[in-house]
Structures are given as structure tokens and as C-alpha cells.
Amino acid sequence: MSGNSIGQLFRLTTAGESHGPALVGILDGVPPGIELSEDDFIFDMDRRKPGVNRFTTQRSEDDRVKILSGVFEGKTTGTSIALLVENTDQRSKDYSDIADKYRPGHADFTYDKKYGIRDYRGGGRSSARETAIRVAAGVIAKKVLKEKYGTEITGFVSQIGDIKANYDLNHLDKDFINSNDFYTCDKEVVEKFDELLRKIKKEHDSIGAKVTIVADNVPVGLGEPVFDRIDADIAHAMMGINAVKGVEIGAGFKSVEQRGSEHRDLITKQGFLSNNAGGILGGITTSQQILVNIALKPTSSIQIPGRTINKNYEEVEIVTKGRHDPCVGIRAVPIAEAMLALVLVDHLMRDHAQNRLLAKYHSH
Amino acid sequence: MSGNSIGQLFRLTTAGESHGPALVGILDGVPPGIELSEDDFIFDMDRRKPGVNRFTTQRSEDDRVKILSGVFEGKTTGTSIALLVENTDQRSKDYSDIADKYRPGHADFTYDKKYGIRDYRGGGRSSARETAIRVAAGVIAKKVLKEKYGTEITGFVSQIGDIKANYDLNHLDKDFINSNDFYTCDKEVVEKFDELLRKIKKEHDSIGAKVTIVADNVPVGLGEPVFDRIDADIAHAMMGINAVKGVEIGAGFKSVEQRGSEHRDLITKQGFLSNNAGGILGGITTSQQILVNIALKPTSSIQIPGRTINKNYEEVEIVTKGRHDPCVGIRAVPIAEAMLALVLVDHLMRDHAQNRLLAKYHSH
Amino acid sequence: MSGNSIGQLFRLTTAGESHGPALVGILDGVPPGIELSEDDFIFDMDRRKPGVNRFTTQRSEDDRVKILSGVFEGKTTGTSIALLVENTDQRSKDYSDIADKYRPGHADFTYDKKYGIRDYRGGGRSSARETAIRVAAGVIAKKVLKEKYGTEITGFVSQIGDIKANYDLNHLDKDFINSNDFYTCDKEVVEKFDELLRKIKKEHDSIGAKVTIVADNVPVGLGEPVFDRIDADIAHAMMGINAVKGVEIGAGFKSVEQRGSEHRDLITKQGFLSNNAGGILGGITTSQQILVNIALKPTSSIQIPGRTINKNYEEVEIVTKGRHDPCVGIRAVPIAEAMLALVLVDHLMRDHAQNRLLAKYHSH
Amino acid sequence: MSGNSIGQLFRLTTAGESHGPALVGILDGVPPGIELSEDDFIFDMDRRKPGVNRFTTQRSEDDRVKILSGVFEGKTTGTSIALLVENTDQRSKDYSDIADKYRPGHADFTYDKKYGIRDYRGGGRSSARETAIRVAAGVIAKKVLKEKYGTEITGFVSQIGDIKANYDLNHLDKDFINSNDFYTCDKEVVEKFDELLRKIKKEHDSIGAKVTIVADNVPVGLGEPVFDRIDADIAHAMMGINAVKGVEIGAGFKSVEQRGSEHRDLITKQGFLSNNAGGILGGITTSQQILVNIALKPTSSIQIPGRTINKNYEEVEIVTKGRHDPCVGIRAVPIAEAMLALVLVDHLMRDHAQNRLLAKYHSH
């Protein structure tokens, strides 16, 4: 397969470029009977949408999700759901001068080498514009998780540059997270983030970020042995988000310096005494909170000139024009939530298929 | 699928438990005409094998790989290759006292909850014993890469606890790496690692590690847009190794604190000026060195008593008996190399299928 | 997966119901650099379109295919291609009286039992309307086959009821086939088909048909051993067309009465002396003409009252209103051609991935 | 994928050649808690085994199935099950003279063209020997079906040459079927089959056959819309059996001559009044008996000399030596049963994954 699908049973397939007529997604495997309307998508689409807060790009797409199939009289029918998001604000002209130049840090070079042809308008298929459909699909996944299992997914910005948010993972304030410009969880860092990003912007530069995503009330037993451990599939889903360069589960890279006596989460009648595992043992959920951290690189779309080459291997200078985020990590919050939700529902279905089939054989 | 396969086109499917009669793998999609003998597996199987150096467990399996199909008169035929590794040193008795207890940090609890039944002997399917077959399959993948593209994969231990190796990724000494007890690349840390592990062992504890894996001479253009970016598939493959809690590509979590002007790798006629991208842009290889770091947790199999529960949710104390690695990261080196090789060959084939089909349409 | 995708590498995923806003398809794996415009779809879409000849249903959709992605400046880019066909002539009213009744011979009963909810307007997802997208995707597949390999696919109606066309598979007149009302290959049967269908229509009944599909200039070596033999994948693709009840390759059911000495196709320097194999040996193409026959049942949408039950398991009588084909087999011709084309391209890519990878190892 | 796997969730992957050391299968997705022992395989392995009755080849392999994983203390654990069948009676010498000649009607020519290398001993991977593993996997599938749903699968020989068995599909005598030399259902034809096959054998020729397979007590709702209709997947599974040239569901090719008023199965409170559909509507099971017919060609391994070419494209004569079935259709009975069972369990799991997930949404 050519990489445009994710999930085995709850499966999203996408198409669409940054500056084509529309983005399209087909979501296959959605259970029947779930109430779904086009309004359900607004909240998350707005969180991902450029121009909503001050520090994200100002392309002002409406990003309205249209349902083209799979829903009848307000409920899912169990057949494939087609989602469409039109590109209404494309401004192709902004990009025409880079048709032959390879922007450093972008996929221009690699797409050209791979395919021998490239839609150079705004990155084409490699643009983060594509993630709009992921967020839409994630809305449906979150609905399934919440309605059936009470599972809740919460993402937030936990670090920008060297400024780190403080937080207690058991007491996250979702309302605060979704109402501040940085989708962060810590009131104390809002001003510092603001100052940093103003500075970065003034310097025409950009900065990296760390996003933390947790899932609470996760059913026990999700994940498949060996290759499709749920942490492996989470890593795949997260590393597949534009700009992500690292993924941690639970203690993550801190584990390198830990002792076994410190890392292993002891178990009591009341549950686990710690969560270095991040809610996953042997690749299977324990029912503890799932904890994921991802590193997002600073966008390469900056207005500081840089050296590169063009199609003819001639050295040229390049400056990215147009409006761009100084910190793409902020908009990644709903995307990362969506990806985690897609993985969880897929694994719910995979677990269900095998282990609930012969319920009489074992009491679960 | 139940997670026992990896790869779309170059596809490994495995079976087998720690204490069953044998481990089995079927490798599908191997190109025909490659010379292959059972001796080809010895070097890598030895690197993974417990008991080869002083700090890995002393189970002394022979770990001889048998080829049951797909090779005729010394060459691959293009049909599926079955690999078999017998379990000759199982000592089931060591494990019988943990049949009902859930070892903290292990998959005992989650397998029981998922399946309602569990092969408790040495972790059964969740044991790292299973990775023997991955290493065997990796040997074939590395052969394809080396013979056709000159691609070389090198893994080494870059950190144990808080002791960090120093290295120049462009001048790694493979002979040294494979001849020291820690598969590390830095002569200076060998003694420090040795001291640390003696200490850890004396304290009946364990310690985490970081493993670094690089691939040189990688063809440009490997990786699929959107979900199956090659970094996403590498993250999946690496996080699917037992004990791995984090994966980084290129600058990894350092990207969080980087500026765009620092992170983006500028391009000249002579090539890229830096490698924060880790050889991957937009999920597609640039032909630069691929750079991956993984975090391995300290094994939970330690001889320090710990609190846990049993099947009846009663609190009990547990001490892991038997012989175990104080640092499982060391043995992960050939496994991580194998996983990277499997991903690369799979993507070579995926790229080939689509982009070499109509060669006349574009000059590559 | 929920059955809405076909192909491993050249992969079509579809969505859309008979009376929803649109049909959508995402075609993944299309090689880059192929010229493609929306006009390319007209010829085949017209052949499938109801109302084009006298004996197919008179819904007059325009069936214009819109390309939403994957094509840039008139050429495919290698990224996923989204195709959209709007439903412009839905007339939902025709169907509202069957919301609770299960039409015999239709999928009403099974969809209700499977999903507990059903889009009853015109069959919803089970309607043959869905095949419009398959035909569109088939156009792209045929283009790849023709341009690269000279492979040509020809389908025709070879039997309606007990009236059989005569033909010489090596001398089919494509112009005649595509210009007569029945897409048949035999001038002699046109009048007989016409008479039969007038009679059937007058009696408010319907009749079955046989469609024959051949592929010429097929590359040797397509098909994978054991489960995904190309004949197995052709059978899957053909049996997945609405109303198909049987599939034959080569001599088909005639093989039951043949002797081995008669069936085996002897080989000379000039090639095979016969084609009982239908161009496939051991599931792999020989380069001879591929020969497929399919049986299409008479549509159950007839105006003769019939017994059935409703949702409450009460016995009721039902008469299908609306406009329907007396012989659905006729419209199946371009659909069957499309399915064969999709299978062939997928197998070209699969073969390419494995066997062309290491070209230096064997001269092909 | 290279065709060595079948099923999405209940997935069999196989390896092994006719004259290699062993056949291997990995069956993934088996539910946990099912009792399974190596003795369970004997009955079906014996039915497939050559030499059991007078008219099948006399290679006397023991065909004992070994379980290498996935079963613990007599029960399946939910992890992948590896099955091994050794090749104990290979007699490679019989085949050495055909190393360079392409036997007409066999896969010799196509394997050589596809891979450029070929295990010529007894057909290698293309040999029907491979089906031994399918039969073994089918035993597990049938067990799941029977124990959980009471589903029973029955196959029998319904025609050899032009001699047709008579039968009533609702009153098949399984004991008789499995105790006569031809696995046929009709006492009246046994002697005729016997005479015919003696004659064929004396003439050193072979003959085709038709096999009929039915499934009773099938749950309603199995099958996925559009491409993976259960009839499409059955067609794929059946056409993937060596020597099969045609597949029919329900009325099959008879549908071509039927009227809609005759074909559609009317429904009453007591159920369907006929079964032209073969238990499947819109690709989804109705709970009626599933009815499948397959055509098996006469084997090309006959002792009548035939014309062919060798590797150098020189014309040569060939005579198949060794022991071969005059009618391979007979041994296909347990294989066809196994394939149907594998498809049904896979679809049970697929249906379960999606439609039982949110049971509260609809009452099923």
C-alpha cells in the first residue's frame, strides 16, 4: 500500500493536496448506530485551524466537514463514511516561485526524487493541510471511545523551546487547555510562551515544541503481541504526524537512567503504584492512563534566507514567504489526539474480533 | 490481524513461545536468486544470544537457524522462507512458582486480562526469546540491502544509565563495536560500563540503556506519504521491540528546543550541511545517513522483592529467580538492526512497485 | 477491514450510497507521470450508465467523474487520487414504501440483520450504483496497462437467457461490441436478444446473462503462489460484482468432463496449442490470452408481485416500482473489464516489487 | 504481499515445498481457550492424504501435524499457532529428469518466467502438497465454527467426467460420504465412478471432477459490502485451490437462463422458499445453507507423451512418471471444506469486530 491508510479494522484512507480542490477521507469500519452530524466536527476542526489563535498561520479556511456517505437519518450505518473538506483559501500564487527550488527541511527534494513530479503548491500532499481529515476522523473515533467506554483523550503543549509546563497528569484542566492560545495546561507558562513566540516571530524564526497526550479510562487488554503492540502502533501514528521527530511512552527516554527497582510499577489491590509504563505492559493496555510525549521540530518555513539547490542541482538562496506558524507544535494537539483515538478504536476492534468471539470459553 | 506480522511486501510472520518446542518465522517476499545458507545467520544470532558476554543472561541455547523452505540449491526461490529455531534449554521449572502471580513490569497481567489464559513459562509469547526469529529475518534483509544497494546498518549501545558514549557517526568502528562486551562504540566507556554493571548486578538490580542505529548508503525516495512515512514505520518497528519506551529520529527530542534556522538542514551541491532530519524529509529518505535512537527500560526481572497481586487479586511479594540480564539494552543491538533492515527492504519494495513500474514516464 | 477496498498495492477504496450526495473513491498506488483528465472517464462511464441503451434503467445521471487529488498539471503525481461522482438524479420517493419490507433477492434483509440499521433508499450501499466508481478506477488501470504493456481488455455479453453468441476469441470486433445495445460480439444474436428482452420486459420479468472478458498482451509472470494466484484474485474481483453467481477461468466447468490429455495445453516453439488454462498456470500468467466467464443472475427488481416479510417478520407482498433493467448483465460489461484491469495492475506491481528488485540476480 | 497468506483476522500464512524438509503454517487470530491436540488433525489429514483410497497417488506420507506454539496445557492461548508437517517420503529422484522441461498444464513454465529459478522437484511450491497445511488449519477453523455456532461444513464429489451424482442437499449422509473411495454422496454412482477411473487409469489419462461444498447453521450477517462479500472471498479461496477452474454460488451458471421471477428466493415466516442465492444476498449470509460448486480440471500429470519446450525453447517430448491421481478432484474435498471454514471464521471475526463492538447501539 502507498501509505495513505491507517488502521487495520477502523481504517482511515485519505487523499488531497494543500492546494487542490478538496481533502477527502474514507473511514471504514465505523460501528453502526452512532449519532453523527456535521456539527460534531466543528470543535476539533477549529482547534486545528490556522488563524484561530495568534500564533498559527493565518490561512482562513472554513474547514467545514461534509459527510458524503455512511450516515442515514443522523446515524452511522456501518458502511464506509466519506468525509470532504474543501480548500477554499488556497492562494496558489504565494508558492509559485519555489516550483524548482527545494526548501530545506521540507519534502520538496524527496518527493521530486521519489516520483519525478511534484505538486509544488504549498507542499502538495506533504503539507500539514492533510491532517484536517485526520482530525475529522478522530472526532468519530473519540465519540466511539467516549460513548462506549468513557475513554477520554487529552492533549496539551507541555514545552516550547526550553520553557516547560508543570502539570499533574491526574488533574488536567481541559477547559483551560482549550481556551488558551497555546493549548497548554499550565497557567504559569502562558505568558512565557507568549513572550518567547513574539520574540521568535520578530526574528522571523520558528521554535520546536513538546506535546503530551493522555488517555484515561482505557479498557484493559488492547494491543497485539509482538509487532502490533499498542505502543508500537501509537509510535507509528505519532511519528506519522508532520514535524514529529520523537515519541515516548510512559517514562520514555528517562528509562535509560532508571534502575529496574525504580522503573517497574508495583501493583497493589488498589492498582499500580506508579506509571513508568505509561499504561502499557508487553504492548497491551493495563487500564492505567496511557501517556505519550512527542517532539515537534521547529517549522522550516521561516523568513530567514537559507542555502539550498534547485532541480538542476544549482545552489540558490531561498526565503519562505507566506504566513506560517512560528510554532507548529501548537496546532498538533488535536491531530495527536485524533491519532491516539484512531489507534485505540482500531485495537478495540482487533481485540474484540479475536477475544470476544468465543466469550463462553473464558470469563473476561 | 493479530500482530504477529510486520511489513507489507517484505513480510515477517512469527510464532513461538519462550518455552515451547521452537520459534518459527515465515518471511514472505524475499527476492529470488539470493545466495543463502544456514551459516549466514550465525554472526547475528550470536550477538543476540544470551551468555555470549558476561552481562547477558546465561541460557545457553544454540540458536541455530534452520531453513525449511524457499531456498533451493543454495539460492532463494522467491517463495516464502520458513525459519525455525529450536528451544533447547528451557528449564521450565524456574518459572513454575509465578504461574499465578503477575510480575510487575511484565506482560503477565495484561496477557491474562486479554486472553483469559497465559503460558506463564518464561513469559510465553511476550518473552524477548521471540526476537531470535526477528534477528534471523534481519540477516536476510541486510543481505538484500548490502548486495543490491551497498546499504549498511550499524547499531551500538550509546548510553547505559547516566554514562554516555562519545562517537562520531561518520567514523564508527564496527569491529570494535562487535568485539566488546557492551556493543558500544567508545573505547573510553567500556570500563565505566563494566563497573556500573558489576555494581548493578551486585545490588540485584537492573539499568536502562540507549541504543543508536544508523544506516548508510540508503537509496533516496524510500517512504510513503502521510501514514507510512519511513520514520513512522521505523518508530513502529522499534517500539515493537521488548523494553523500548522511546524512539527518536535525527535530532529527536532535541528539536523541541531548536530554532527553525538551526534545525533545517541546508543543502549545497555537495549535499546536506547537517543531519537534524536523520536522513528523512516528509517521511521519505534523502539518502543521508538514517539516524535512530531508542530508549530501553531496565528489565523488571530483578532479584529485589516487589509488591504485586496474583490472579485472585490478593497482594503478594515476588522475586524473579533465574538468570537475567542486568541491562537488556545490550542484546537489543542486533534486534534493532534487524528491525531497521526489515523496514528498509519493505519500503524498497513498496517504492519499487509504484515508482519503477512505469520507468519510461520519468527518469529517476 | 470492512470490505470497501480492493487490491494490495494498486488499491481502490470506495464509499457512497445509491441515494446519498455522491460516490467517492480513493485510488492508491497509481504510478506518477501518467496523463489523466476528467474526459478520460467518459467512454466507460457511458457504457455503464443507465439509460444509454434501451434495455438498461432510465435513471439519467450525468456520471461525470471529478478528480479531487493526485493529478497536477494533467499528470498523476504518485499520491492518492480521489474520484467523485455526484448523485444528481436520486428520486428517493420511489423507494420510500419499501423501508420496512425486505425485497426478495436483494440485500435488504442481510443489511438489516448485520447492522441493525439500513439506508433503504435504492439499496443504499448495496446498490449497483456503487460500481460507477469501480468503472472510473478501471479507466486508470486500463490506461496503465495499455500504455506500458499494450495490454487490452475486452468484455462482451456472450449469452442472455438461452441465447448464446458465437465468437472467435482471437477476432473480436471491439467497435461492434461497443456500438450495439447489448455489448455483444455476435451480429447474429442482436435481433434475438432484442426480441427476448422485449418479451421479458412486457412480462415485467428479468433474465440472466453471461459476460465474457478477455485480456490480450498480458505480461508473463503475474500472480502469486498459493492464495493470491491471479485466477483467485480475478474470481474475488468478479464475484464481488453485484449479481454475479459464477466465475470460470479458461475451460471452466467444461474441465469437469475433460481428459487430462485434452485439457493440458501443449507447448511448442510458437506457443501454446490451445488455451484451456485461460492464460494462467499455477496461478501465474503465461502471456496467453486471459479468459474469464461470469454468470449474472436476473435482477430481482421486477414488477411481478412476490412474497416476503417485513421488519416485524410479518408476511407481506412486494412489487418493485421504479425503472429497472430487464437484464443487468449488459451494464456489467465495463464493470467486469474494470475489475480485471484493477487485478492485473495490482499484480503487476506485486510482481515488480519482489522480482524486479534485484534485477541483477537473474535475467528475466 | 506475496500470496502466502489468506484471511484478514483469522489468517493463515504458509511455507514449504513438495520436496523440502517440511510444510509450515502460522495461523494467527485463533481465539483463546479452545481445546486442541495433535490428534484433532488426523481425520481430515487422512482424507487428504494420498494413498488412502485406491485412486489417489500412493506417496505414503504420515502427514502428522505438529503444534509448535500457541497451545498451552491443551488449550489455545490466543497467540499465533505454528503447525508443521514433515515431508517424509520425498523420492526426489522421480523428478530429476524434468529439471529443464516445462510440463504442459503445470506451473513449471510460469515459475521459471516469474522468478528465474525453480525448485523442480515435484512442483516445489506449486505442488498440491502445500494444501496439507490448509487442511490442518481448516481443522481449527471447523472446530471454532462447530463449538460456537454449530456450523457444519460438508464437501463431496458430485461429478466425475460426465457421471453426475444425485443428492438432496438437505439430507446428505456424511458417514457414507467419508467412507466411500470417492467421497461422493450418492451410492448409485460409486460403481460408475469406479469403472470410469479404472478405464482412465488403464489409458494412462486423467479426468476432471466437480466438488460441492455446503455449510449449514451459518450465522446471519457474515460478509462485508462491496469487495469482500463473502461470496467473493469464497470464490477467492476456492479458485486458489490447485486445479480449480470454476466456482459457483447457489444457482451459479444456471442463473444465466433463469428469469427473475424464478431466481429470487421468496421469503415467508418459515424462511426462504428456495435457495438460488446459495445462502448469500448482497454478499452477506442469510443463515440459509451456503452452497458452493467448484470445477477441478483433470491433472496434467499423465503418462501419455505430450509436446512441450525446455528452458532453451527447444521442442521436447515429455511423459510424467511417478504415481499420480487419475482424478485429483477426490482429494480436494477436505481442502475445499477447509477453505470454506477459513473464510467463514475470518468473516465471523470481521463482523464481530465492527458490529458487536457497540452492542448497546442496536439489538441484534
Short descriptors:
five-stranded antiparallel β-sheet; 8 helices; globular; disordered C terminus; homotetramer; 364 residues; Chorismate synthase, AroC fold
How would you characterize this protein structure?
Chains A, B, C, D: It holds the Pfam family Chorismate_synt. Chains A, B, C, D: Belongs to the chorismate synthase family. Chains A, B, C, D: It is an enzyme of class 4 (lyase). 4 copies of one chain form a homotetramer. By secondary structure, chain A is α+β, with helices and mostly antiparallel strands. Chain A has a single domain (5-362), classed as Chorismate synthase, AroC fold, CATH 3.60.150.10. Chain A is built from 8 helices and 18 strands. In chain A, strands 1-2-3-7-4 form a 5-stranded antiparallel beta sheet, with helices on one face. In chain A, strands 9-8-10-16-11 form a 5-stranded antiparallel beta sheet. A two-stranded antiparallel ribbon of chain A has the order 5-6. In chain A, strand 2 and strand 3 (22-28) form a beta hairpin. In chain A, helix 3 packs across helix 8 (332-355). The relative contact order of chain A is 0.17. Chain A binds chain D through residues 8-9, 29-34, 78-80, 144, 147-148, 225, 348-350, 352-358, 360-362, and chain D through 8-9, 29-34, 78-80, 144, 147-148, 225, 348-350, 352-358, 360-362. Strand 11 of chain A pairs antiparallel with strand 11 of chain B.
